[in-house]
Design brief:
By secondary structure, the protein is of the alpha/beta class. The protein has helices spanning 15-22, 43-61, 71-83, 99-110, 125-132, 150-160, 181-191, 217-223, 254-268, 273-285, 288-313, 339-348, 378-394, and strands at residues 29-30, 93-96, 116-121, 137-144, 147-148, 164-167, 197-201, 231-236, 248-251, 319-320, 328-332, 351-352, 354-355, 368-372. It binds pyridoxal-5'-phosphate.
């Protein structure tokens, strides 16, 4: 008998990681994972950058380094934000092992057992898992096609004094929903005067293929005078360079940063210095924006194929979101239908997705599911969706 900590009792293995194991069978069409398309990994450019870093700066690249991260990389991130209209000082940036580490550090720094944490409903599974280890009380806030419900947010802020509000305003994982600009500004105003920290997770912001860039909620807080001391903005290189390199960052004000740096020191001293320098060299020497434009164009074609297939192959009572970017769309089946039994039947026909209930903290969403469109080409999407529609019709 092994005695584990209490916190392990309420958190389980990620359903998606388990599905991903099943999906290694190459004959399965998988819409389950959240994988970028490997066709676009800049392998040659990164090889060049790695060679250059090791030959020119090998001694320092292989040495221990500062917790905050490689200063030129922090400057480069600030510069890229500025080009998109977001003001962040390099010293407000902490380099992470993927933005997932930011969620872990934020949870460690803010959540005591029983604290209230606001999440969108549905929300990102690995954030629910990560926060769950610190035993909070989750309060789920409904999302509509324009973002989080402001009345529900306002009410929760008033009655629960939550520690955190975790939001994914751009092409949310799992739903593909984005906040309108008005909703971002309303969210900022609703948060003003509360003690709640906004954790704004933005892994997909640069993969917008429809419409124009919208300000982050953090930017709205700066512009409407609420201030950004209670905002943590997360970003990552996973979707625009490579997820395997595990490099992301967070932006936070001085006091919050101080605590996050302590938590990061305790966790891992610092992120991989060699990787940071390679990515920095890559950002300085390659046509990164041209590369991101190619990803956007391909994902748009893939998204169009998937949305088109939902309309062409499924009956009207099945609806889906029409994301303006990112990697996922969200399908809703008629009330009473089980996406889990749809999943089991689909897997038998060698096509997978993620049943939606995994993304809800309150056990709802039984008739919903998440479909990934970034990791399959158009022909595979059309074939897989047609196959899925036959499984659906047989149900
Ligand atoms: C909403 C969201 N947050 C965070 C992450 C973690 O990304 P990273 O690879 O930067 O750790 C993901 C990955 O899919 C995500 O979808």
């Amino acid at each position: 008998m092994v005695n584990f900590a209490h916190r392990m009792a309420s958190v389980h293995r990620s359903f998606i990681r388990e599905i991903l194991k099943a999906a290694v069978d190459p004959t399965i069409i998988s819409f389950a994972g959240g994988l970028p398309n490997p066709r676009f990994f800049p392998v040659r450019e990164l090889e060049e950058a790695a060679r250059s870093v090791l030959s020119r700066d090998g001694d320092s690249a292989l040495q221990y380094a500062t917790t905050e991260g490689y200063p030129p990389l922090r400057e480069k991130i600030a510069e890229r934000y500025a080009a998109r209209g977001t003001k962040v000082a390099p010293e407000d940036i902490l380099i992470l092992n993927g933005s997932q580490q930011g969620l872990d550090l934020v949870a460690k720094v803010f959540i005591d057992a029983g604290d209230s944490v606001l999440v969108e409903s549905p929300s990102y599974l690995a954030a629910i898992q990560c926060f769950g280890l610190f035993e909070p009380h989750f309060r789920a806030l409904p999302l509509d096609t324009g973002g989080v419900s402001i009345p529900a947010l306002t009410e929760a802020l008033r009655t629960e004094s939550p520690k955190l509000f975790y939001a994914i305003p751009n092409f949310q994982n799992p739903s593909g929903i984005s906040y309108t600009e008005a909703r971002r500004r309303e969210t900022s105003r609703a948060m003003a005067g509360s003690t709640t920290v906004l954790v704004e997770d933005d892994p997909y912001g640069e993969i917008r293929f429809i419409g124009r860039d919208l300000p982050s909620i953090r930017t709205c807080m700066a512009e409407d005078g609420s201030g950004t001391e209670r905002a943590v903005l997360l970003g990552t290189f996973s979707k625009i360079v490579s997820p395997g390199m595990r490099l992301g960052w967070l932006c936070a004000g001085k006091d919050v940063m101080e605590n996050l740096v302590v938590a990061k020191q305790a966790a891992d001293l610092h992120s991989n210095e060699l990787t940071q320098r390679i990515v920095h060299r890559y950002l300085c020497s390659a046509d990164v924006d041209g590369y991101i434009a190619r990803i956007r164009a391909a994902y748009k074609r893939q998204r169009d194929a998937m949305v088109g297939a939902v309309h062409a192959f499924f009956p009207k009572e099945v609806s889906c979101t029409e994301p303006e970017g990112g990697m996922f769309l969200w399908m809703t089946l008629p009330n009473g239908m089980s996406a889990l039994s749809f999943f089991e039947k689909a897997l038998a026909q060698k096509v997978t997705f993620v049943p939606g209930s995994a993304f809800f903290t309150d056990g709802s969403g039984e008739n919903t599911l998440r479909l990934n469109f970034s990791n399959c080409d158009v022909a595979t999407i059309e074939a897989g969706m047609e196959r899925l529609s036959r499984v659906y019709a047989a149900m």
